[in-house]
Write the structure tokens for this entry.
Amino acid sequence: MSDDGGDRLAVSVVIPCRNEASTIGELLEFLLAVTGEEDEILVADGMSDDGTRGIVEGFAARDRRVALVDNPGLHVSSGLNRAIRASGGAYVLRMDAHTRYAPDYIEACIGELERTGADNVGGPQLADGRGYVGGAIAAACLSPIAVGGSRIHDPDYEGPSDSVIYGCWRRSLFDRVGLFDEELVRNQDGEHNRRIAAAGGLIRQTPRIRSWYTPRGDLLSLGGQYEQYGYWKAREIRTFRAVRSWRHLAPGLFVAALAALAVGGLASRRSLGLAGALGAAYLLFLALSAICLCVRRGGWRFLPVIPAAFAFMQLGYGIGFLRGAWDSWVLGRPARARFTRLTRRSGRAGDDGPPGRSRKETEGGSS
């Protein structure tokens, strides 16, 4: 807040996006309704070819708060950096085109920064899936089994955190710790938060900051997404030469153990039996975890798909982590092209409801 107790200082909303024609218009309409005349909205577009740029340019022509920023680097990290450099607000707040936000989202972020003195604030990553499979994936995201106990998926947690969804910062923070690492296609927010913590900064999560992310709508895209998460987490660990949490290693270790036993089974029946026993125990673990989640959170209609969602998240992450460790730790090679591609399929076909709306609004029900 300003020193005289009046209106808050200006906010720069930065939105990295690429091929978001199905969602960007609704997000911009929302932002124009909740931001002040002193605020600005910068869309860093990764050279979209689906009409996104035209939509943003239309908004920019009618309201000076909106600006299109070219992002020839294509990825989130370069888009964030270009938008932040072009912005001028006292606060910088990141948003995503695949997320629905509470009407007080911006005020809640700024209020939390000022109330706590934190350096980065955000809310829990609440998932809001479209369609049956998307709803099952959203339900799975509420389980610590799927995400390794990360607080970012706990809808009730309030307090210090190692990372938060999206983020809101004072502009002065970037002078202290720098901008985002453009070599990271994924996990650039986690790496940036590690630098904030290393500089003695505070990252804080609160359920008062509310948003609802639209997850992948099919299991193959989900697996590809988490494979990229694992791959880039390995490269982040190489940069810092330190592991922040065991949960980053567990999926890779499990995949490595299962693969080693399976290969050993070619020469030893005992290894083959151990591999089978480990696989059966894992399937049982997935089923029991899904039942426990449904007991705690509801959503029993998604029970048949939740175990598969767990598996695609965990195994995808583990496989990606091992590939990333091999490429960056052993070979020291640049990232493979397949781990820099988008894993979200276009929203122009197969959407189960209007972009930016909750499942409750589009299906008449909730998990």
